[in-house]
Amino acid sequence: MDEKAILSDEVAKDRILNRISSEGIRIRSSFSKSATGQYTYYLGEDKIPPTIEVPQFTDLSELIQAFALAHELGHHYVYQRISRKKARLFKSGMTCTTYWNEKLAWREAEKILKEEGILVDEQTNCSFFKYKTFCLNTYKDQVVHSISSPFKFLFGSVLLLM
Question: Is residue 8 in some structural domain?
Fold first, then answer.
């Protein structure tokens, strides 16, 4: 098959699912994730393998699902490369490190999608960029708020002292 051939959305999703399976990562459907449409990567511990939790029901196209799955697989690759100390930092819940973790996972997702022959045309690339941007923007507001809040408090306190 020609590497530059445009894949159907179903084939694209299947390629990512096969790659996830080949990494020994479980896929678990979740009814509760259906309400948010959120996909989540869980790092494996002890005898529990890494898991990607996906919505049991979704209105997302199979291509967008492939992007979301590649992103979660990207988290797996990021955690494989970094030290335990950095992994704890990424999992700490601090908004800046969470955002950085998400950015790294999206970079990995783009590499994965290119390696799997999914990002081969302009339309697919644009769809990926729009979805990635939408997802990252959900974290940006939290980052801006976490950075600006201390300055607002400090500025307000200074004004009160004047």
Answer: no
Structural domain boundaries enclosing 93:
59-161
| Interval 88-112: pLDDT, tens | 777 777 777 888 899 999 999 999 9
Identify the bridge partners of residue 41 per DSSP, sorted by sequence position.
52
Kindly state whether residue 143 falls inside one of the protein's structural domains. Answer: yes
Number of domains in the chain: 1
Cβ burial, residue 61 (10 Å; 0-12/13-18/19+): middle
pTM more than 0.85: no
Residue 15 included in any domain: no
Distances (CA, A) of 128 to 8, 25, 26, 110, 113: 15, 23, 24, 8, 9
The reply to whether 79 falls in a domain is yes
